[in-house]
Amino acid sequence: MGNEQRAAGTFSVEQPLWRAVSAFRLLTLLYAVGRYAGDAPHYSHPAAAWAYMAVLALWTFATVRQFSAKARCNWWWLSADLALVVAGILLTRGFDHMSYVDAGEVTLPTVRAAAAVLGFSVLGGWRPAALAGLVVGLANIGERGRITSSNVHNIVLLMLAGVAIGYVVELARASEQTLARALEIQAATRERERLARDIHDGVLQVLAMVQRRGAELGGGAEEIGRMAGEQEIALRALIAEGLTPNPSYEAPRRQLREVDPGQPQDLRALLTPLAGSRITVAAPGTPVLLPGRAASELGAAVGAALDNVRRHAGPAAQAWILVEDEPDGVVVSVRDDGPGFPAERLGEAVREGRLGVSQSIRGRLRDLGGSAEITSAPGQGTEVELRVPRQRDNSAKEKVK
């Protein structure tokens, strides 16, 4: 977890871009100085032009550190850089012969202006970059004294480049935030699983035992048992996949319908929402994986068993759901503290046409190749044991054939 957090915190997709901005400023400065050195003979005020180039060079070298990292560069630095470039573009009209200005000769900063726009792209995205590109374009129009096709061409290219780079920077920034969030979720999930493994076999079972014993003893112990049950529910909700408890006996029908039958499902994710003040869910601390259809049908069978508790044992009855992940299959037990019923009652219900148990519970398990055992006696509650076998490897089946 610590390594993942450090990785998310120290890695920044923007840092290489800032180093590129700093390097681009230096390279374009060298180009501007070299280009002016070749064009200086036709300038009417070469000394003044050289003075501007010296100021631009000193500024560029002095601000290398500021423009090499986002933490040190802000809008003031970028605005000052843009202002110096714009000043150089406008001064070109006063320092150069008008014939060369009218002919469209390059300005004093030349491509150094693109470096200023690039800084706005990396810091603020495409909108500030478009604005900076527009300012540079207007300065070029002012230097020429009119709008020309070459002016329009250069403005469009500069703005498109700034907008494109700014948009890419925004996407990179969003991707970095998504990656950091994913690493946080992964670390939290691993920590939650570790806590679940440590807690499940200790604290949760003790709380469940206190709840059951309190209900059996009655009196003041019953109140203690109820409080223990509430704390167990809260603790289980904290460590069980972030799912919220459901205080009723109703099965999460909507969630069951959303299960993808073609993908393995964690049975805990289907059954944990059933936990409430009257229902206790005990499951392993690690995922209990079943094929999507098997998990959905088993969850529906558990829901049908809880419906029977609500109808026959009453809304005040307590129910316990226990999930066991065994090597050869998954066993889910649903037990309640209701009045129970004689063993022959199930046969009578079938003969009377009430097929809830035989179809909603046993029928589902039979279709999965499993079984449903129902045990009850008057005054001793009811227990439904649902067993789903593990699917065998198809290749193994073919070898047997």
Highlighted features:
Heat Shock Protein 90, alpha+beta, kinase activity, 401 residues, HATPase_dom, five-stranded mixed β-sheet, disordered N terminus, two-stranded antiparallel ribbon, 7 strands, MacS family sensor histidine kinase, 2 domains
Strand content: 5-15%
Helix content: 55-70%
Number of helices, counting only DSSP H or I runs of 4 residues or more: 15
Number of domains: 2
State the end-to-end distance. Answer: 48 Å
Helical/strand content category: alpha+beta
Question: Main beta sheet: strand number and arrangement?
Answer: 5 strands, mixed
Taking all Cα atoms into account, the compactness measure Rg is 37 Å
Question: Per the principal axes of the C-alpha atoms, what is the gross shape?
Answer: rod-shaped
Q: Can you count the beta strands?
A: 7
- What order do the helices and strands follow? HHHHHHHHHHEHEEHEEHHEEH
**Overall residue-averaged pLDDT value:** 78
Would you kindly provide a written description of the structure presented here, covering whatever features stand out?
The protein is α+β, with helices and mostly antiparallel strands. The chain folds into 2 domains: 2-179, no CATH class; 242-400, Heat Shock Protein 90. It is 64% helix and 9% strand. It is built from 15 helices and 7 strands. It has helices at residues 2-10, 15-39, 46-62, 75-95, 98-102, 112-124, 126-144, 149-217, 220-239, 253-257, 267-271, 292-313, 345-351, 356-367, 394-400, and strands spanning 265-266, 279-282, 289-290, 319-326, 329-336, 371-376, 382-389. The strands form 2 sheets. A 5-stranded mixed β-sheet has the order 2-4-5-7-6. The longest helix has 69 residues, at 149-217. The protein is rod-shaped, with a radius of gyration of 37 Å. Residues 1-10, 241-257 and 393-401 have low confidence and may be disordered. Pfam families: DUF5931, HATPase_c. Keywords: Kinase, Membrane, Transferase, Transmembrane, Transmembrane helix, Two-component regulatory system.
